[in-house]
Design brief:
The complex is a heterodimer of chains A (109) and B (114).
Chain A (H helix, E strand, L loop, with lengths): L3 E3 L4 E4 L4 E7 L6 E7 L6 E5 L5 E3 L2 E6 L4 E6 L8 E8 L5 E3 L3 E6 L1
Parallel strand pairs in A: 2-11
Antiparallel strand pairs in A: 1-3, 3-8, 4-5, 4-9, 6-7, 7-8, 9-10, 9-11
Chain B lengths: L3 E4 L2 E4 L5 E7 L6 E6 L5 E7 L6 E2 L10 E5 L2 E6 L8 E9 L4 E4 L3 E5 L1
Parallel strand pairs in B: 2-11
Antiparallel strand pairs in B: 1-3, 3-8, 4-5, 4-9, 5-6, 7-8, 9-10, 9-11
The chains are: A mainly beta (109), B mainly beta (114).
Chain lengths: 109, 114
């Protein structure tokens, strides 16, 4: 079993749709959680950190469930520019991160 | 945040040769990493570059194949030695910066081995 598992995707949604990605992790000692976005042929970029209380940044909402060991990312009112691969990242301590395989989102007109 | 540059941005190399990739950060950072990302796949950590000591390699990666230097807190190099077509990949430098342990990536070096 992988340390970090994401929805396999791909997700193809129309503009304006709401889409949710889930990610599960196996290491109960994990401390930090992030969502990254990676555009085609580009490096990953931090989208948002995920806090225990949940956090929102505009159309994006991230939630953490420590008991069930999963995190989620909700995107409301999808835009064409949201098309990308979304990577779930989990860190057990201040050192190295473990990346999920990513979920590809395509938003269509 | 941190601004990271990598050189070269891309290269096409012959098998059996070696390529050294440079990573420069605009601020001093403690944690610096080298990743590989093959087409359509997620990131694989090669090693952690430690300043003043030998790099820490992940399972499946060895120093003879991927020697790493970290002479100071803003710079590191990764060498891909005795290359084969299987080494064709994007190599990414990454650092941890900021109080929230966020990780930032360089633009990557796209390597093609013929």
């Amino acid at each position: 079993r992988k340390e970090v598992e994401q929805d396999p995707g791909p997700f193809n949604v129309p503009e304006g749709a709401t889409v949710a990605f889930n990610c599960t992790y196996s290491n109960s000692a994990s401390q930090s959680f992030f969502w990254y976005r990676q555009d085609c042929r580009k490096e990953p970029k931090l989208l948002m950190s995920v806090y225990s209380s949940g956090n929102e940044d505009g159309r994006f909402t991230a939630q953490l469930n420590r008991a069930s060991q999963y995190i989620s990312l909700l995107i409301r009112d999808s835009k064409l520019s949201d098309s990308a691969t979304y990577l779930c990242v989990v860190k057990a301590n201040a050192g190295k991160s473990t990346f999920g395989d990513g979920t590809t989102l395509t938003v269509k007109p | 945040s941190a601004v990271i540059s990598q050189k070269p941005s891309r290269d096409i190399c012959q098998r059996g040769t070696s390529l050294t990739i440079q990573c420069q950060v605009d601020s001093q950072v403690t944690m610096m990493f080298w990743y590989r990302q093959q087409p359509g796949q997620s990131l694989t950590l090669i090693a952690t570059a430690n300043q003043g000591s030998e790099a820490t390699y992940e399972s499946g990666f060895v120093i003879d194949k991927f020697p790493i230097s970290r002479p100071n807190l803003t710079f590191s190099t990764l060498t891909v030695s005795n290359m084969s077509p299987e080494d064709s990949s994007i190599y990414l430098c990454s650092v941890v910066a900021g109080g929230g342990h966020e990780q930032f990536f360089g633009p990557g070096t796209r390597l093609t081995v013929l």
